[in-house]
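SEQUENCE-TO-STRUCTURE ENTRY
===========================
What this section holds: a protein sequence and its matching fold, both as plain text.
Question of interest: how does this chain fold, as expressed in backbone structure tokens?
***
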Amino acid sequence: MLICGINASHAASAALVRNGRVTSALQEERPTREKNRPGYPTRAIARLLEAEKLDWRDVDAWVFGGLDSIPERDPSPTDRGDRIRAYKDNLEARGQAKRMLKETPLGDMFRRRHRRRQVQRLVDHGVERGRIHTVEHHACHAATAYYGNGLDSDALVVTLDGAGDSLCATVSRPGPRGGLERLTSVHERHSIGNLWEVITAVLGMVPNEHEYKLMGMAPYANGEGVAQVKDIFRGAFELHAGGWRRSPGVPNPRYSYDFWRQQLEFYRFDHICGGLQAFTEEFVAEWIQGWLQQTGCRRLRLSGGVFMNVKLNKILGELPEVDDLYTFPSCGDETNAIGAAWAHMAEQGLAHQIQPLQTLYLGPEPAALAYVAAAEHVRGLGWRVERPPDVEERVADLLARGEVVARMSGREEFGARSLGNRAILADPSRSDVVRLVNKAIKCRDFWMPFAPTVLAEAADDYIDNPKGFSAPYMILAFDSRNTGDVRAACHPEDGTIRPQVVTREQNPGYHRLLEHFQARTGRGAILNTSFNIHGEPIVSTPEDAVDVMRRSGLRHLALGPFLISKPDPVTA
């Protein structure tokens, strides 16, 4: 059976699943070059079908993840102030009307009409209407958390995000025939994910995109101010009947911009970040710990955008009730394309045919001629182009000399994290590369930490992982060891590390690069950050890679079999 899963909401995406195995997946942001592009993933679907040489009518089932969807729209304003103002206006005026409309029969009518338009797009490509299905939003998240790691009767499956199909959280356990039985849910009007969204806006950053910046700032904050802010947030929510609810007088987080701006008016930026992170860790851990104790489950499975918060995942993994932790990688809405396909299989009684996720290298791979064309193009720019016998060894040489090198090779990563194939690499022991990468290439905030790729054979040298959690996807955080060797790839304030542990089987070329680097330096880890300029999607094609190099201070690029370098800078 061939299924195409579709996420037509925030971070639009598509995935192809053949006989339970994910064969390819792509976010709409990659071909459109608009970060977190929402709506119907027109180009992503077409590119996946083209890459696998499939016709639309070859697909046995088309499954939308989520009952609600977001209309396609023109690209959002690129100016940060405009985007924040648009968000604030939506909360205060149109947002209020939209909320009221959503809960009326008229709102249901608009949702049905919009979905009919999306279905018609498939029908226009020759797809039979009987092959088109829909799965509820949090059922998709739960499917990724559970089936992504394989069937396990001792698993507690938890989803937590901003909102989806009127919910923000669920708890489930394995049920009959390999399915999942939902134990509880929390309505979106009490959403902690939406609380993060609105606080991000209050702090002058782009909501639904820059929440990770608050998490990155949090470890720098300490003192009474953090405790006071944490208590303010803690007083706004109370655990209740297996879930939680807002305290009396606290507005729906999604529409609470003015409320929280007044509550936090006299607190420092870093104290707000630290207090929000501390509240989230404490509150979510208490909620989940209660379910672990009630059910007796020892294996925790997580998905939904809130679990992109790796420091929260660290706290949950340290709970004494948890023996094993699996967080589905890049667990925001983009992965609901995969979850939709798997959840549909479970509904059809085919859960035991679902194969656990083996890799996130799920995007298309450029053709050899595309690399050649890009190399020929940069020759015309006066850049140096080599084709070394072993490009990975040459990259390792450059890294060992302190150079920063971008790498584009093989299939692109699906999701928010770079896993080496669309990556900017550097020696993690050199503190100076942080400033270089931030200022000349990534153009991002100074306080944000980087992360490392670590050889599986050297993982114990750098990662304090007493429970032996698998960590191939940069979705878990740990305390670090030998911090000096990876100082540039740890959080500079608390020394925590968010690793990608790579094996030879997962990525032979990238693993070989790390081996060469280790042979030259003694360090079995390198700094790895996504290959993009801040605010843009990760590069997808050779043309994208060359464009980022042209517009940034990046000097070296391993592009498929080629090593491309800009001329040495002229010095006076």
